[in-house]
Amino acid sequence: MNSPGAIINKAISRATGSKARGTIADLPAGTGIPLCLIGLGANLDSRSGSPEATLKDAARELQALSDYPVVISSIWRSSPVDCPPGSPDFANAAVAMLPRSGANPLELLGCLQQIELDFGRVRKGIHNAPRALDLDLLVCGNIIMNTTVLELPHPRLHVRGFVLAPLAEIAPGYVPPGQHLSVEALLEVVERAGESGLLKVTNDSVSL
How is residue 155 annotated by DSSP? Predict the structure, then answer.
């Protein structure tokens, strides 16, 4: 793995002054609540200001969905992948959380979509169009689901550097359902293929 703050390649970096706040090992055990991993992304300004500021505020909104402290990665910057020409770079992060007891994946998805709307997300029907906030439910416990509205685990989780790099900070040894490699090992595979596209943007912790 690259050292904190290192450039993985020219397309992905960690934001200056950003650092992860804990790992999934810091979450309480024995709660019976499934571990949920959420990918955060933004490449347009929102009510919070810059995409980086949006992700910090969105993490605070996610905290409201749990009775336990959430774990938040550093903020990273990535080049657009499969986006319309001229799309701005993205700010990316990841959150690990234990959603409030009783929440199921579809209910949690509804909460995430409402947070997106609150930050000004507009769905224009254009594939991967720029957006004020994107919250992807990546994993929800060991649930495997394939519906018209939600697929779990996220079908591109294992091949997206901008998802794996933040996750590797907070859940390096975690093996997603359906995979045989840990998050950290999956990121190394993507790096070797030269497809991570990530830069770390910040080392400051997010205060929740």
Answer: T
121 is catalytic: yes
Q: Is 47 a catalytic residue?
A: no
pLDDT, mean of each 10-residue run, the chain (208 residues): 35 54 90 94 93 95 94 89 74 95 87 94 69 94 94 93 94 96 95 66 48
Is residue 187 helix, strand or coil? helix
Q: Please identify which of the residues 131, 156, 160, 192 carries the catalytic annotation.
A: 131
Residue type, 77: R
Do residues 65 and 97 touch, judged by C-beta distance below 8 A? yes
Pairing state between β 145-146 and 36-42:
unpaired
To the query of whether residue 131 is one of the catalytic residues in this protein, the response is yes
Predicted TM-score (pTM) of the model is 0.86
Name which of 137, 108, 107, 113 is nearest 37 in CA terms. 137
For the question of residue 82 being annotated catalytic, the response is no
Task: Kindly indicate whether the domain formed by 12-200 is annotated with CATH number 3.30.1660.10.
Answer: no
